[in-house]
Amino acid sequence: MIRVLIADDHHVVRRGLLFFLKTQKDIEVVGEAKNGVEAVQLVKEVQPDIVLMDLVMPELDGIQATKRIKALYPTIKILMLTSFADKDHVLPAIDAGASGYQLKDIEPDDLVHTIRQIMRGENMLHPEATTQLEEGLREEEQKLHVLNPLTPREQDVLAELTKGKSNREIAASLFVTEKTVKTHISNIFAKLQVQDRTQAALYAVKHGLTEGSGQM
């Protein structure tokens, strides 16, 4: 039996889910919660296999409830069942530890399929949620690239530069020529849009780039 806890602040939604899930021979609904606080408490009491978690609930939302549940019981799986498919909701849900993300307009048979798949250890995302997740990850990658557009070798040179080393000292430390170091520093200034070594060093400290890549 797959033991399921339903957490949703709408009574009609809980009743609908309960009515359908009760018809499944391999699924048992072991509790209902109308907010995140109740969900966390009931998880402690009944320890279900899966929690069907709404995102927007009073007292404690689905994201925070998921974080608390996963911190207490890492093996309990969370299936987000919500009306929101935008990345501002999808990304935090996945980061919180949700194993699945489905919209409330999902067909009952598809919901049951999702529950069974999650129990088998698969991650099940609604197509819209998958698209939003991919877009969100691409945006994060782009932000990181803007923040740190340097190559690994340029990061090494910058790390040495922030230590106050001269070009000759950097060349000796990295086993390259001074000419190579000068080229790297010129590229660093251009990419970081700084004018001198001091500004480059400040940028490195501000953005945590002072350790270098460690690559030769």
UniProtKB/TrEMBL annotation:
Domain Response regulatory: 3-119
PROSITE patterns, A to Z: HTH_LUXR_1, HTH_LUXR_2, RESPONSE_REGULATORY
Record's keyword annotation contains tRNA-binding: no
SUPFAM superfamilies for this protein: C-terminal effector domain of the bipartite response regulators, CheY-like
Keyword Ribonucleoprotein: no
Pfam families attached to this UniProt entry: GerE (PF00196), Response_reg (PF00072)
Regions that span the bilayer: none
Compartments where found: Cytoplasm
Primary location: cytoplasm
Modification 4-aspartylphosphate occurs at: D54
Residues in HTH luxR-type domain copies: 143-208
Annotated keywords: DNA-binding, Phosphoprotein, Transcription, Transcription regulation
SMART domains, alphabetized: HTH_LUXR, REC
Highest rank taxon of the organism: Bacteria
PANTHER family from the UniProt entry: TWO-COMPONENT RESPONSE REGULATOR
UniProt protein name: Response regulator transcription factor
Native source species: Lysinibacillus louembei
